[in-house]
Design a protein that fits this description.
Blueprint: H1 10-24, E1 35-37, H2 54-59, H3 66-73, H4 78-100, E2 105-108, E3 111-112, H5 118-124, E4 131-134, H6 142-149, H7 161-167, E5 171-175, E6 179-180, E7 195-196, H8 199-214, E8 219-222, H9 255-267, H10 270-273, E9 282-285, E10 288-291, E11 298-299, E12 327-331, E13 337-341, E14 357-362, E15 368-373, E16 378-382
Parallel strand pairs: 1-2, 3-4, 4-5, 5-8, 6-7
Antiparallel strand pairs: 9-10, 11-12, 12-13, 14-15, 15-16
C-alpha cells in the first residue's frame, strides 16, 4: 500500500484508499481470508537498497514537501523520525483497510527480522492485530556485522521474544525458508543465506525452526517461502536462483521436506489454543520441548480390551479404572513410552523416527508392544515379533494407528 517518496503527502493517503477499494473490498466478507499484509520489506533504514537512514531520504525531498517539514523537526533524532513515519504509515493503511473491511486481521508489513527498530514496533502496536516478520537465517557473521554498523536495529532472539516484548502483539512469520545444494540450483543470489548440503539437512533446519517458533506462545502462524523453486537462470526481475521450493520447477516434490512439513503442521496448531498437556499436541516438559501422548492407552494385561482413544486435541486422559496391578502404556509422538496405572515410570525409550508415532498395540502377554509411525514404520519391543513395515509406501499422515490381531498373532 506504500507509494511515492513522501508518505506525509496527500497522495499517499489517496493511493492507500484506492488500493483498499480495489483489493480489500471484494474480499471483505470472505471466509477463506485471515487478514491483510499491508506491505512487505519496506525501507525503514539502512538495508540492501540504501545505506541511508530514512530521515536522510526525507531531508533530501524538495523544499516545502510535507515529509521534509516533518524530518526537519527531528534533526538530530533519527529514531524519533522513524517513529513519526511509521505512525503515519500504520494510521493511514489501517484506516484504509478498515473502511472497506471490518472483519479481517491487519497483519503488518513483513519486516525483515534483522532490520527492525524498536520505534517501528512501538508505532505499529496500536494499529495492527498481528505483527509480521520475514525470518530468514543469514550466513554466519552477517548478523554481527549488521549490529556493528547499524546498532539501531534490534538483535533478534531466536524465539522472537524481544520483538514481542515491544510490539505486544501476536507474531506471524510471513516468510522463511532454507535451500540445499543437492537441488542442482546455483543458490548464488542473494549470497547472504546459508546453503545446506542435502534435502535431509534442509528438512532438519526446517523442523528446528518451526519447533522453536511454536514453543513461543506469541507466534501464531508461519508462511513458508515458497511453493516452487526459483529458476536456475534466476528470476526475471532480480536474478534470484534458489532452492526455496517444496517442489522443483518440474513439480516434483522434495519429499523429505514435504513430509516434515506435513508431520509438523499436523500437530503444531494445538499448542496455540490448548496450553498444558494435550493429546496430539506439543507441550513443554522440564524446560525442553517434547510431544505429549496421542491418546492411545493399552493395558499391559488387558482385562477389558484397549482403553479409550480420545482423539487428536483431547486433554491428556487419566488411566481408566482397572483391577489392581494393571498398568497402561502411553506413547508420545517421539516414540517415548510411559507406564501408568500400577506404577509410573520415566520414558522407556525414545525412537529416532522420521515421522511421528501415531499408535501403540500391546502383545497378548503384556510383555511387549508395537509402535507405528505416521509414515507406516513399525517398531517392535519386548516379546513383540517384527512382521514387517510399510514405511515409505504412504505419505505421512495416512497411517493413523495400529491394532494387534489375536489369531494368528500379528498387527
Amino acid at each position: 500500500m506504500a507509494s511515492g517518496s513522501d508518505w506525509f503527502a496527500r497522495s499517499f493517503v489517496t493511493n492507500a484508499y484506492a488500493v483498499a477499494a480495489s483489493q480489500v473490498a471484494p474480499l471483505a466478507h470472505s471466509r477463506n481470508l485471515i487478514g491483510w499484509y499491508t506491505d512487505s520489506e519496506l525501507h525503514w533504514g539502512p538495508d540492501w537498497r540504501s545505506t541511508n537512514v530514512v530521515q536522510d531520504d526525507y531531508l533530501a525531498l524538495p523544499a516545502g514537501s510535507p515529509g521534509r517539514a516533518v524530518a526537519e523537526r527531528y534533526i538530530g533524532h533519527p529514531n524519533g523520525f522513524v517513529y513519526a513515519l511509521a505512525t503515519r504509515y500504520f494510521q493511514v493503511t489501517t484506516a484504509a483497510i478498515r473502511k472497506y473491511d471490518p472483519n479481517h486481521l491487519i497483519l503488518g508489513v513483513k519486516a525483515p527480522i534483522q532490520l527492525i527498530q524498536p520505534q517501528l514496533l512501538e508505532a505499529a502496536s496500536p494499529y495492527v492485530d498481528v505483527f509480521s516478520v520475514d525470518d530468514y537465517a543469514l550466513t554466519p557473521g552477517l548478523e554481527a556485522l549488521i549490529q556493528k554498523y547499524a546498532p539501531q536495529y534490534i538483535d533478534p532472539t531466536k524465539n522472537l521474544s524481544n520483538i514481542e516484548s515491544i510490539v505486544k502483539k501476536p507474531i506471524i512469520v510471513g516468510e522463511y525458508g532454507f535451500r540445499a545444494a543437492d537441488s542442482g540450483l546455483p543458490n548464488s543470489y542473494p549470497p547472504i543465506f546459508p546453503t545446506f548440503a542435502t534435502q535431509a539437512d534442509r528438512a532438519s533446519a526446517y523442523s528446528s525452526f518451526v519447533n522453536t517458533m511454536y514453543a513461543s506462545p506469541w507466534v501464531v502462524g508461519d508462511s513458508w517461502f515458497e511453493y516452487v523453486d526459483e529458476p536456475a537462470g534466476g528470476r526475471e526481475w532480480d536474478g534470484e536462483n534458489n532452492n526455496w521450493g517444496l517442489v522443483n520447477v518440474d513439480n516434483v516434490a522434495y519429499r523429505t521436506v514435504v513430509n516434515t512439513a506435513i508431520a509438523l503442521h499436523r500437530i503444531e496448531p494445538d499448542a496455540l489454543v490448548s496450553p498444558g498437556p494435550r493429546c496430539d499436541s506439543w507441550t513443554a516438559t522440564n524446560g525442553s520441548r517434547s510431544v505429549t501422548c496421542d491418546g492411545w492407552i493399552v493395558p499391559d494385561n488387558p482385562p477389558q480390551g484397549p482403553g479409550p482413544n480420545p482423539g487428536p486435541g483431547s486433554p491428556l486422559p487419566s488411566p481408566p479404572t482397572s483391577p489392581p496391578g494393571s498398568t497402561y502404556r502411553f506413547v508420545e509422538r517421539n516414540g517415548a513410552t510411559y507406564v501408568m496405572g500400577a506404577g509410573a515410570s520415566p520414558p522407556l525409550r525414545s525412537l529416532s523416527v522420521f515421522s511421528h508415532v501415531v499408535g501403540i498395540a500391546a502383545t497378548a502377554s503384556g510383555h511387549g508392544y508395537w509402535l507405528v509411525a505416521a509414515d507406516g514404520g513399525v517398531f517392535s519391543f519386548g516379546d513383540a515379533n517384527f512382521y514387517g513395515s510399510i514405511a515409505g509406501r504412504f505419505r505421512a499422515g495416512v497411517v493413523v494407528g495400529i491394532a494387534a490381531t489375536p489369531a494368528p498373532p500379528g498387527v
